[in-house]
Amino acid sequence: MHKTALAIRHVHFEDLGIFGAVLSDAGYSVHYHDLDAAPFATIDPLEPDLLIVLGGPVGVYESDAYPYLAEESSLLAARLAAGRPTLGICLGAQQIAKALGAAVRPMGHKEIGFGPLTLTDAGRAGPLRHLEGVPVLHWHGDAFHIPAGAEGLASTPLCATQGFSVGRHTLALQFHPEVDVAAGIERWLTGHAAELAGAGIDPRVLRGQAARIGPELREAGQRMLAEWLQAVP
Questions:
Q1: Contact at 8 Å (CB) between 84 and 169?
Q2: Three-state SS for 151?
Q3: Which CATH number does 3-231 carry?
Q4: Alpha helices in the chain (DSSP H)
Q5: Which of 49, 99, 155, 223 could be 77's S-S partner, Cβ–Cβ 3.0 to 4.6 Å?
């Protein structure tokens, strides 16, 4: 059966990565909506079978400077109220949390690099179990609260809220399981060069970690998404 997946992309190098092949295998035709393509008001919030909101280097509270954030939040609010399948990653997850009435704030520190998740009982019972013990890529300075009615899925020492789900239709992940680090992360290292320098992080360290972790992370991330898609109503 033909299904449609719409991915909102805020910066070009933060794309679907390894998730693209999984979506194709699951029967989805994938389309990107880039920021300058058309206003979010032109998107029917209920039309895509799956909506994916990807990451980006801005905060959900910066809508005065970046008005599209408020439009995106309204789009998500309408979709989530209808219980339509929705996946958010990093900024996308924060936007889902905001649309569901939860606070999103700066943590006061950066979490950038590879590290394992500590899964909750709900996390171990669902598709995130494939990531247990596997260092995943973190790249953020903000964090969301878990919305009312959602289940928290994971944490790290630097961020207590790494993911949540709402029923079987909504999954929000603070970390980045979609990045194909096995293929290299030069686009990320270059695109976020100023942030890395400001945080005192050596890109050579991240590059070396990506080379070691990449193949295992690719397999685990693809299994995670495939299992979640199988359960999506």
A1: yes
A2: strand
A3: 3.40.50.880
A4: 19-25, 68-81, 91-99, 121-124, 186-191, 193-199, 203-231
A5: 99
Strand partners, 40: none
User: Could you give the CA distance from residue 81 to residue 84 in angstroms, rounded to a whole number?
Assistant: 8
Alpha helices in 32-100 (DSSP H): 68-81, 91-99
Q: Give 1's pLDDT tier (boundaries 50, 70, 90).
A: low
| Beta strands at 151-156 and 170-173: parallel, antiparallel or unpaired | unpaired
Which residue from 106, 116, 99, 107 is spatially nearest to 150, judged by alpha carbons? 99
pLDDT 10s digits, 45-92:
999 999 999 999 999 999 999 999 999 999 999 999 999 999 999 999
CA distances from 187 to 17, 42, 94, 111, 142 (A): 12, 30, 23, 18, 22
Distances (CA, A) of 175 to 4, 9, 74: 24, 16, 23
Let me know the angle formed at the C-alpha of 86 by 228 and 123, rounded to the nearest 5 degrees.
40
Asked if residues 178 and 218 have their Cβ atoms less than 8 Å apart, the reply is no
pTM of the model: 0.96
Is the CB of residue 132 less than 8 Å from the CB of residue 170?
no
- Measured CA to CA, the distance from residue 207 to residue 201 in angstroms comes to 11
